[in-house]
Design goal:
single chain; alpha+beta; Translation Initiation Factor Eif1; 3 helices; 4 strands; about 30% helix
Length: about 110
């Protein structure tokens, strides 16, 4: 098992190669985030592989992982529920479909549909 140094999984502490740092920072960032008015988000309820519990699933976000997680945090806070944001999906625990669609449209995500 390798140790992480400074949050780096490869264990590198310092490099004189500037390209190395640029490649590392760009890694995992995804594409550039589309503006809110061009995002085509789909909101649906899901119970698959969740022991029968309902979650609200938001799909179709096009952008960086950071922006996806920020939107997920905003939605989870607004709903007062737990959840996660990963692999291009935002999952909010519970049935909040109609509320989330309304909030997203209010926030400028006009192409959102259920």
């Amino acid at each position: 098992m390798s140790k992480k140094h400074n949050g780096r999984p490869d264990g590198l502490v310092y490099s004189t190669n500037n390209d190395y740092y640029n490649d590392y920072e760009a890694e995992g960032q995804g594409d550039e985030t589309l503006p809110k008015e061009k995002q085509k988000l789909r909101v649906k309820l899901d119970t698959k592989q969740r022991a029968g519990k309902v979650v609200t699933l938001i799909d179709g976000f096009s952008g960086t992982t950071y922006d996806l997680e920020a939107l997920g945090k905003q939605l989870k806070t607004k709903c007062g529920a737990g959840g996660s944001a990963k692999d291009g999906f935002i999952i909010v625990q519970g049935d909040y479909k109609e509320k989330i669609i309304g909030w997203l449209k209010d926030w400028g995500y006009v192409l959102t549909k259920g």
